[in-house]
Amino acid sequence: VVVVIQSQRNSYHARRGEQRKVEILQQAADLGQGGLLRVLLLHQLSEFEGDWSVLPALPRLFAAYGRRASWFFFVEEETRLKVAALLQVLTRYPGHEEWFLGSGLHDDEASIIHHYAFAEDPGSFSYPDPRAGWAVSTPLLKRLAVRLQHGSLKSDFTIDLHHEVALYVWDDGKGPKLTAVAEFCSQRRDGCATWFTTYLPYCGEPVPKTDVFVAVKTCQKFHQDRVPVVRATWEKDAGFLEFYSDVSDASIPTVSLGVPNTEQGGHCGKTFAILKRFLSEAVPRAAWLLIVDDDTLISLSRLRKLLRCYDPDEAVSLGERYGYGLLQKGYSYATGGGGMVLSRVAVSRLVSSGCSCYRDDAPDDMVLGRCFTSLGVPITHSPLFHQARPDDYPGRLISSQQAISFHKHWNVDPLAVYKHWL
């Protein structure tokens, strides 16, 4: 069995991945089964940052380990593993056949993050709960690896890797669907081979409010409906906060950065102006910059707790990670709607590099991702940030999270969403 820990390059996550690796190998040694297990850290497989999306890494995994392994088992950094139970579970499934094993999630309703797949019956398609771990047999991995070397994906974007892996495995009915395994657990109970701890670990007291400068992107047409929602919900928890608009409005107040609002595309020009202002003496000095949209709902107290785990002297770009063109060596980015968190070091490196917008209305989150990729700054992922609304995610998944953010006021009561979830 090859256990692949879905680790990240950021120093905190690399340490957590290494700790999990040591725990698993020690269990195998204590059982006298050390020779049956190989444990890999995903971020160490290659220099390519896009390996986090798993599919680009499969051909390399098969080439390196396919002749000696029967199973490849993928786990999160915070997934705990009982090696004896895992080995026992896998003996139930003939390793010479194609198997895709996991704890199944399904959409409660058609979801934008899954491109409204299976819109007529969202619950008909299962994909693995990442917290519980998921396995592919070597014959299936071989077929996937060959396909990946000679084909392409239906979409250039990687949004929810576990749903997209399951779609790729299923291959419109030519491959296996996910087989549910009761011993792969998200919460610990008797008989579990795996269980999950938390995406919001305790790393010490939350960072002070004044360590986080909050930049809210807005525009004149939303001053009357979106800004009051921010005021009524999470603004009270901010140490330093400014609203950035296309006009100055003293009643809020807003700051105009001299960049006109755009109806199409993104807000790259405005975001780069925010980055430069953050480094200037026009605003209080802070270790972290949070950039959010005016229709983002966020728990700043949970964010400050999470930020204690990260080194502010490291170049950090944190949020919900998406990918663009990753099979073609593309780049990753933190989605803007869920909130983009940057350390001062990351902002300084970006601004001093000369990397810039190709147009003011270019998508700011994607341009930032492309710039950070060129600078060798990893995009660090936390599934507690959400680019969409709570209804767009499986209830079983987000109900057990301590979510940090949600995005969009479409067809929801944002005050109720904030009160219930954040």
Automatic annotation (TrEMBL):
It comes from the Eukaryota. It is a single-pass membrane protein; Single-pass type II membrane protein. GO terms for molecular function: glycosyltransferase activity. Keywords: Glycosyltransferase, Membrane, Signal-anchor, Transferase, Transmembrane, Transmembrane helix. InterPro entries: Fringe-like_glycosylTrfase (IPR003378). Residues 68-167, 207-411 form the Fringe-like glycosyltransferase domain. One of its GO terms (cellular component) is endomembrane system. Pfam families: Fringe (PF02434). It is found in: Endomembrane system; Membrane. Belongs to the glycosyltransferase 31 family. This is Beta 3-glucosyltransferase b. It comes from Tetraodon nigroviridis (Spotted green pufferfish).
